[in-house]
Write a structure and sequence with these properties.
heterotrimer, A: five-stranded parallel beta sheet, four-stranded parallel beta sheet, about 15% strand, C: about 350 residues, mainly alpha
């Protein structure tokens, strides 16, 4: 009896849910977003960027005339949820490419996407995703179908450390500067932990024991007291913006003031406003111009923004631009694939790997020129370091330097 | 041994502990008078802090207007919750009562996250923030204020239960509902009042924490931290709640000290209170100061 | 005439204790259940991937929910940490499989046993604690185990999680939903029959006695500690099997999947289904698995294209779960299985029901 009831209810409730089979001339794309999880603070602007960009592509001729048929799923930053969604997509949506999000889920999916030959464009810039062949000694698993736009977390952190070393000298300080890694016990903050510490040591830093603080925003005064006591000069914050605001507030309260270095998702316009004085002077790598900047590509970005905000008044932050870039690199690869035998996963991968200093059309100055090869998925290793200043309601990004992190062979996949 | 860090952490533990104590007191107040284990205590902080934030930032009211409105709102909120949701649960088994408050907690957490988003928001500056130096620990005035507010609340609670009519009625109801009823106390009103007071005081704590750390979903986690506190202090002892709050606050910071100096595990800070809870319950199944049920057949 | 009268059925009448303790209440119910299982076996032939996925989810969550019902509904012990045991099953199965190379087919029951062993261990102190204190203690164990999962690199792969190989038996790999459905169905049938059977046994009656009045039970010679610990063990076994099925279905296990939220969902399943009812565990699971899907469907219906609603979908789902718990507890505290009985009784006596 329970079985019939089960079956009946299930069937009744399910009618009409199944995704319609995609039309022949459309390109199925999966879009995995974090709108409600602990990283939703940066996941929402990035996800909006991706969605707007895809709508814009569809409204402007599609990919060589073919429409993108994308499905957005919010997975709340839970890796198992992401895998479940992926499995569902493979059986019904059959995507030829996926726009993904976090490190935990992307790294968990590496083997799946390699098996199913689906190029995966993540918003995770984990260094573990950069080795497509698995040749590098540090690589745990080859990631042939993973791509991302921007320097890897490890390279970003190396760039920041490099800047920190110069900063230390420029300030005329003597002795060994102390470097500390801070972040939750989670694949995303952990990704650059060892790689960055190794480079910091190489540059003459004293590397201290890492400090753990929660990915969800919360009180971190105890951790800040430990930080203060450790005497660190440069502290790398591995979490996303929302959590970093709490950390900086707490550290401001207890008077722990090292030079904070944020990762690419760890600092943006919103956090400067929310952290106020506590966040003054944080060093951050910028992967894109800001909304008010006047570079040629911004005209396109503003047009894209109108897809979801016709008034054009919404301020889009840094993460939005990176979402747009990630989508347009995918689009360009699809166009190339279309000319070379059709839009399939393997063809998109090959097209991505043919890009040399490529900038998507119409996005000059917004997206950095990036190069992928079939042996190296580090799109770019250029890290632009800025510091931010907060002056009562307004804020400024101050350019410090552009660090060109060397492409060492043994850093691949690390 | 690094004594400077240890002292600073202990002072921090005491300040955080008083706040835990206040929230635990609100929890105990509800449990003592209505026998409801409130898993949604953290959401009171959350809702209170966000309401105040919205009034101050979105409606741009001055603090002395927005804050009383927040408290009034929370009072109504507490009463409505009691009347609509908890009153039908009287006489239901304990798991139902637990689950209904867990349900409330889930509902309000999601609702608040939906309305206000996942971003930490800063409170407008109400007081000039200047740091004072206590035992080598730089402490912001807002933070000091939280200590002051907590102490005032505690004294207020003491006077309320000792001298006011309602306070006496609540104690009578907690002691024995039937006798209280026969003496002309409206148990219904007492129940509603317990929820209202608990909601208002929790909201106060939420606003104070929000001023120091910024307002975010993290506030609701304090509702979970309350459990080690009340297990330590006894579910029905107001004084126990305060003592338990201080102990757990200090314990957390001690765990951080041990962790950072020797263990290097990383998150002892957040997990240590739960270990303490389990150990206490293994040794004393009714908590440290809890009253043991004596059952008669 | 008399014989005709005696054959006329009006409601259920039982004249022997044997009749009162059959697995299925009536022969008709048994036949319907058998036909139901047979019908379900044909689902992979015509069902869409989406429907199969939902049914598989209902399967492994249902097994775990039944386990929780044994400890909460039958024995009256509150557990807020069931998701941790569910996770333990998933991790152990993946771990046994990857370290020893034992085929997954055997790893699933092994994982169940390992989880049961841990459950028995946890049950020993839990036997001393009652009611509210037990609820809080299990809540704490949920957080402690969650932390352990995120830290034990050797066992769980740490915060990065672990890969779980697809289900295989003697080189025959079942890695698609169609074949895996049969694996889950097999376990559902076995576990539910065993669960229903447990209630007919001496141990099952002891559980119920402990729940109804533990002092009287003790006076009647029931060893309280033994049965409290045993019920934790059995419940963990169910959770372990459910978790192992979950892990090998998904192919990946990580600590993020087994949070307090899942524990709450398990309790919601048995409360909505009906505490102390085997069938209720399944009904409640069906409800809880389909509820978010219905919400998603509703949101797409109302606000297709409205990005604010779509972006809030996870919140809406979570609110719906919270609201469902509250509303059920207020308006239908005995759960769906009770409602189902009422409907049955109404029709049985129709049109003379009063």
């Amino acid at each position: 009896m329970r079985k019939t009831l089960l079956c009946g209810t299930a069937l009744l409730a399910m009618f009409g849910f199944a995704t319609m089979a995609s039309a022949a001339d459309s390109i199925p794309v999966g879009h995995l977003a974090c709108y409600t999880g602990p990283t939703s603070d940066v996941g929402i602007p990035y996800g909006n960027g991706v969605a707007d960009a895809m709508n814009y592509i569809n409204a402007n001729g599609g990919v060589n005339g073919k429409q993108l048929n994308y499905e957005t799923v919010d997975y709340s930053y839970k890796a198992p949820q992401a895998i479940a969604t992926y499995k569902r997509w493979v059986s019904d949506l059959k995507p030829v490419a996926i726009q993904g999000w976090g490190t935990a889920d992307t790294e968990a999916l590496v083997q799946f996407v390699a098996r199913d030959e689906i190029p995966y464009f993540s918003a995770s810039y984990s260094g573990h995703l950069t080795d497509p062949t698995g040749k590098s000694p540090r690589t745990k698993a080859p990631a042939p179908y993973n791509f991302f736009y921007g320097p890897s977390y490890s390279d970003t952190c190396r760039g920041l450390v490099q800047w920190a070393a110069d900063d230390w000298k420029a300030k005329g300080e003597t002795g060994k500067p102390k470097f500390i890694h801070m972040g939750a016990n989670h694949p995303y903050p952990n990704a650059p932990k060892e790689a960055c510490a190794a480079y910091a040591e190489e540059l003459g830093f004293e590397v201290l024991n890492p400090i753990v603080y929660d990915l969800k925003p919360g009180d971190a005064k105890a951790q800040c007291l430990t930080l203060k006591d450790s005497g660190a000069n440069y502290a790398y914050m591995g979490n996303t913006a929302g959590s970093n605001i709490s950390l900086l507030n707490s550290c401001g309260t207890v008077g722990a003031k090292p030079q904070f270095l944020a990762n690419v998702w760890g600092w943006d316009e919103n956090s400067i406003k929310a952290a106020q004085e506590s966040g003054d002077g944080v060093a951050v790598p910028l992967g894109s111009p800001s909304w008010k900047d006047d570079v040629p590509g911004m005209a396109t970005v503003r047009a894209i923004s109108k897809m979801s905000d016709p008034s054009g008044e919404t301020y889009r932050n840094l993460h939005y631009m990176r979402g747009v870039c990630a989508t347009f690199f995918m689009k360009d690869a699809m166009e190339m694939a279309d000319k070379h035998g059709g839009i399939t996963g393997p063809n998109i991968k090959k097209s991505m790997e043919m890009m040399v200093n490529h900038v998507p059309a119409g996005l000059d100055g917004v997206c950095k020129p990036s190069t992928w090869t079939n042996e190296d998925h580090r799109g770019t290793t250029e890290v632009s370091v800025y510091t931010t200043t907060y002056n009562g309601g307004d804020f400024k990004f101050n350019k410090q330097s552009t660090v060109d992190v060397p492409r060492r062979a043994d850093w691949l996949g690390w | 041994m690094n004594f400077e860090l240890l002292t600073q952490l202990l002072v921090n533990g005491l300040i955080v502990g008083t706040l835990y104590g206040v929230v635990a007191m609100c929890f105990v107040l509800i449990y003592k008078s209505t026998r409801v284990v409130n898993f949604a205590q953290g959401e009171f902080l959350l809702i209170g802090a966000w309401t105040c934030w919205a009034l101050l930032v979105k409606f741009e009211l001055p603090f002395y207007v927005g804050f009383p409105i927040t408290l009034a709102f929370m009072m109504v909120f507490g009463i409505v919750l009691q009347v609509l949701v908890l009153r039908p649960m009287i006489g239901e088994p304990i798991i139902s009562v637990i689950m209904v408050t867990i349900g409330l907690s889930m509902f309000f957490q999601a609702l608040v996250a939906w309305i206000f988003g996942g971003y930490t928001k800063a409170f407008p500056k109400v007081f000039e923030t200047e740091s004072v130096n206590i035992a080598g620990l730089q402490i912001e005035t807002a933070y000091m204020m939280s200590l002051g507010v907590s102490v005032v609340i505690m004294v207020g609670f003491y006077i309320f239960f000792k001298y006011s009519r309602l306070g006496l009625a609540m104690r009578a109801t907690a002691f024995n509902q039937q006798i209280a009823q026969s003496l002309g106390i409206s148990v219904k009103h007492v129940f509603a009042a317990a929820w209202a007071i608990s909601a208002v005081v929790s909201a106060l704590a939420g606003v104070v924490i929000g001023m120091v750390n910024g307002v975010s979903s993290a506030l609701s986690f304090i509702g979970i931290k309350v459990f080690p506190v009340v297990i330590l202090g006894g579910l029905d002892s107001i004084i126990g709640a305060i003592v338990g709050g201080l102990v757990i606050g200090v314990l957390e910071n001690l765990a951080e000290f041990v962790d950072s100096q020797w263990l290097q595990l990383g998150n002892m800070y957040s997990i240590a209170p739960f270990y303490a809870l389990v150990i206490i319950l293994m040794i004393k199944p009714y908590g440290l100061f809890g009253t043991k049920d004596i059952e008669r057949i | 005439m008399a014989s005709a009268h005696s054959r006329m059925r009006c409601g259920e009448f039982r004249t022997t204790y044997q009749q009162d303790t059959t697995i299925f209440p009536t022969p008709l119910a048994r036949r319907v259940a058998v036909i139901g299982v047979l019908l379900l076996m044909t689902v992979p032939l015509f069902g869409s991937a989406y429907q199969l996925n939902l049914l598989i989810q209902i399967g492994y969550y249902g097994i775990a929910a039944l386990g929780l019902n044994i400890v909460v509904g039958f024995t009256g012990q509150i557990s807020l940490g069931h998701a941790a045991f569910f996770g333990l099953g998933a991790f152990s199965s993946a771990w046994i499989n990857s370290t020893t190379g034992i085929p997954v087919f055997f790893c699933i029951p092994l994982a169940g046993c390992l989880t049961m062993a841990v459950g028995l261990l946890v049950g020993i102190p839990a036997g001393r604690i009652k009611g509210l204190y037990l609820a809080i203690a299990t809540l704490a164990s949920q957080y402690i185990l969650e932390d352990f999962f995120a830290r034990a690199d050797w066992f769980t792969g740490g915060s990065a999680g672990a890969m779980a190989n697809p289900f295989s038996i003697f080189g025959f790999v079942m890695n698609n939903d169609r074949s895996y459905f049969y694996v889950v169905l097999f376990y559902v049938v076995i576990m539910f029959l065993a669960g229903a059977n447990l209630l007919r046994s001496r141990d099952g009656r002891a559980f119920v006695a402990v729940r109804d009045h533990y002092l009287s039970a003790e006076i009647m010679g029931i060893n309280l500690n033994k049965y409290r610990i045993l019920s934790f063990g059995i419940s963990s076994f169910y959770a372990g099997i459910g978790g192992a099925l979950f892990g090998h279905y998904l192919g990946f296990v990580s600590a993020e999947g087994f949070t307090i939220l899942l524990s709450i969902q398990f309790i919601a399943m048995i409360i909505i289904g009906g505490l102390g009812s085997v069938m209720g565990s399944m009904l409640g699971t069906v409800f809880m698995v389909l509820l978010p899907e219905v919400m998603e469907f509703g949101v797409h219906l109302v606000g297709s294209g409205s990005s604010t609603l779509t972006q809030a979908l996870a919140y809406i789902k979570e609110m719906a779960i919270g609201l469902a718990i509250i509303l059920f507890l207020i308006f239908e505290p005995d759960g769906l299985s009770h409602r189902w009985k009422m409907i049955k009784n109404y029709w049985k006596l129709y049109p003379f029901s009063y």
